[in-house]
Amino acid sequence: MATQIKQCPTPPNEADRLRALRAYDILDSQPEIDFDTLTRLAANALNMPAAVIGLMDADRLWFKSELGLGVPQLDRKIAFCAYAVLSPQELLIVEDLRLDARFKDNPLVTQAPYLRFYAGAALIDPQGYALGTIAVVDTSPRTLSETQGLMLKDLSKLVITALESRYRAILLENLAMTDHLTGLANRARFERTLNSEIAHFRVTGKSFTVFYMDLDNFKIINDTYGHSAGDEVLVEVAHLISKQVRTEDLPARLGGDEFGIFMREDNKGLTESLAKRIVDTVTKPITLTTGHQVSIGISIGIATYSDDTQTVDTLMGLADQALYIDKRN
């Protein structure tokens, strides 16, 4: 009969803890040198063969950095770190995992890699939530001195500092890549995305589609009702476009009354359907906060990237030509 692993209870603030973790947008991100350095430092300073920085998701312990284990994550049911998160103010030190009722039947202990020692310090964010741990393990029983324990706690604080720094950098980058009026991606982010997809195309040959759009009669609204009314229209159009695209598409305001959409494929049926939906929704009357109703049109140019000699400029030039033809029709 299979041995039952003792299940660790979840923290009483689990829902809030998970929200705090996910706000950092770090799960499943690429390796980063700041975290890898701290993992290596933990292993070397404590003379351990393996160390991890693990973030405790709802059903897994995902490793932002790991040294010596060779796996990207663990099922939460068998993660020793689940107990460290449960009592975050205390170091969790298990000198011999085989002698601890919580862990003696754990497959990490009874099977490869046959772990015998664990020490983990919780990663406590500024709000007090335990996001995960920095931990060291060994295949032999051992002890951890008081000085080593303090060092592990200090390393946990450095991990949080790195995490906060990363979060602030992402926020600043997002601000720099966002149109402040509409909340859509701005031209810089749109073009960066296209450059990335062009590089991807050169590896995979997977085509993609670009929409280039501008509003008809927008100047009349600005001249008649003022720029604040024009801003209202731009915000509403951005909202209407956003409602029509899929999560994998990227809508953007490119400047003035110009908008764009990046579609991660070349599918004539999908592009035609999206264009029709945008025209149908955007051309309905818009009621301003002043009570006035205004109507606008929208012209759409569509271009597909299927030639690796093209650049972002040439692709957008093709979309602009298609836009000009649409305006004439």
Automatic annotation (TrEMBL):
InterPro entries from the UniProt entry: GAF, GAF-like_dom_sf, GGDEF_dom, Nucleotide_cyclase, Rev_trsase/Diguanyl_cyclase
Superkingdom of origin: Bacteria
Chain segments annotated as transmembrane: none
One MF annotation (Gene Ontology) recorded for this entry: catalytic activity
CDD domains linked: GGDEF
Domain GGDEF: start-end pairs: 206-329
PANTHER family assigned to the protein according to its UniProt record, in alphabetical order: GAF DOMAIN-CONTAINING PROTEIN (PTHR43102:SF2), SLR1143 PROTEIN (PTHR43102)
Protein's UniProt name: Diguanylate cyclase with GAF sensor
